[in-house]
Each structure stands twice: as structure tokens, then as C-alpha cells.
């Protein structure tokens, strides 16, 4: 199933192995790594094993955003962390940053999560100094939950209740 989304984002679709190179390039981009909980580079073999596991799991949903011209522009991933709790991860392709894509990627990702799974709550873990991500999640209705991950690395947690029919 693919859905049309207004803005520079043409559609969001299920990821496949054909997306491996783009996903790895985005993950290993220095700016992405700067804000990641794991800032190291990922090797291709490790990435392919991870991707195959993600694609085979009912506890994960990986979606790729494309422009009207079907160019990959970003991704959003949801990982089940509880019975009705999911953690979101989002990345905009480096060449498309600053074009207002993160909000539509997140909103359409949440919508598709509701269509495909029964989410309940979505959690976002964001580095406190990543002002763009903090702003994104706040503007999307996520609330800081007052806790930080136990590792003390400067990350904040945001939560949002989502359900079928949320707009």
C-alpha cells in the first residue's frame, strides 16, 4: 500500500532490500551519526543483516519516503518496545535536509503505523542539543516525559499517544 502525501514528500512505502544502499548512506552520514545513540559507522554486511531482520519482523515497520519523481528522500522506522508502545526513528536524506520533509515523514509514518499495527504510544529519543529534532517532535504533539535514558548521554524522551483516526 502506498499513500499520497501533500508537500515535497510524494509517498511513503514499505522499505525493501533495494533500499539498503540508501539507508546505509543516510545512517553513516556524519550529521546523522552526530545525533545517534550509536555514533559509529556501520559496515555493509552488518547493515544487510540488520535490514533483513527488520524487514522480516512484525515488531518493526520501516518506511521509505519518495518525492513525486520517486527519488528517496528519507525514512521513518517504528520498533515495538512494549505491547502497545513503539519507538520512532526518522532520517531525512542529507541532500534533502532543510526542505520541510521531516514533519510530513513523521505524520504519514504515524498514520501508516496506525493502519498496519495497533500502536498506542510512540516514543522518540532525541539528543537534547538536536534542536531540529526536538522542535519536530514538539510540533508533532510529542510531550517530553520528564525522564532521560539511564546512560546519561544527553538524550531526551518524548511520547505521544497515537491511535486510528488521529490526524
From TrEMBL:
Q: What is this protein called?
A: Sortase-like acyltransferase
The alphabetical list of record keywords is: Acyltransferase, Transferase
Keyword hit for Acyltransferase: yes
State whether keyword Transferase applies: yes
SUPFAM superfamilies per the UniProt record, alphabetical: Acyl-CoA N-acyltransferases (Nat) (SSF55729)
Q: Which Gene3D superfamilies match?
A: 3.40.630.30
Q: Which domain of life is it from?
A: Bacteria
> Which residue ranges does the record assign to the N-acetyltransferase domain?
10-167
Name its species.
Answer: Saccharomonospora xinjiangensis XJ-54
Amino acid at each position: 500500500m502506498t499513500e499520497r502525501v501533500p508537500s515535497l514528500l510524494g509517498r511513503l512505502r514499505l522499505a525493501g532490500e533495494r533500499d539498503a544502499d540508501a539507508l546505509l548512506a543516510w545512517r553513516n552520514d556524519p550529521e546523522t551519526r552526530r545525533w545517534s545513540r550509536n555514533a559509529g559507522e556501520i559496515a555493509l554486511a552488518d547493515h544487510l543483516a540488520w535490514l533483513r531482520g527488520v524487514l522480516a519482523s512484525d515488531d518493526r515497520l520501516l518506511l521509505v519516503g519518495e518525492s513525486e519523481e520517486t527519488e528517496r528522500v528519507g525514512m521513518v522506522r517504528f520498533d515495538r518496545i512494549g505491547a502497545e508502545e513503539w519507538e520512532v526513528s526518522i532520517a531525512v536524506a542529507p541532500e534533502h535536509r532543510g526542505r520541510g520533509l521531516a514533519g510530513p515523514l513523521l505524520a504519514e509514518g504515524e498514520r501508516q503505523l496506525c493502519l498496519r499495527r495497533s500502536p498506542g504510544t510512540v516514543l522518540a529519543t532525541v539528543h537534547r542539543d538536536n534542536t531540529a529534532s526536538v522542535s519536530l517532535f514538539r510540533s508533532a504533539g510529542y510531550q517530553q516525559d520528564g525522564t532521560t535514558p539511564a546512560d546519561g548521554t544527553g538524550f531526551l524522551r518524548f511520547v505521544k499517544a497515537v491511535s486510528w483516526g488521529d490526524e
